[in-house]
Design goal:
Jelly Rolls, 4-stranded antiparallel β-sheet
Amino acid sequence: MINQDTIVLLKQVPLFSRLKDRELKAILKSATDKEFKAGTKIVSEGDAGVGFYLIISGGADVRRGEERLARLGKGSFFGEMSLLDDAPRSADVIATEDTRCFVLTPWAMKGLIAAHPEVALGMLAELARRLRETDRALS
């Protein structure tokens, strides 16, 4: 169940860190809570993106083929790019242990951005940070 602990985690996500509790509660009403068993593929590379995921408990690996790109844990998130466009997922995300996620769909996010444009600014800042991090890693 999504609760006050989820609000605390949302506040740590750059996309949502500027929002007030009232706005975060509105997000929670639009989201779902999903559980994944260890070894389950949460999202698949090449599939259409269907939302933003915030790990509430557990952990997952981001993989492209056999290569692990990142290890995710409680408070980590992924799928924010799918909220901006309809492009396919860029990697697999596989639960490494039993994992619970907060999931926000693109249509719920679009309504949120219309009501709270500052969410879009937070998303852009996070995407720029990740792009710079990737660029440094490849240099």
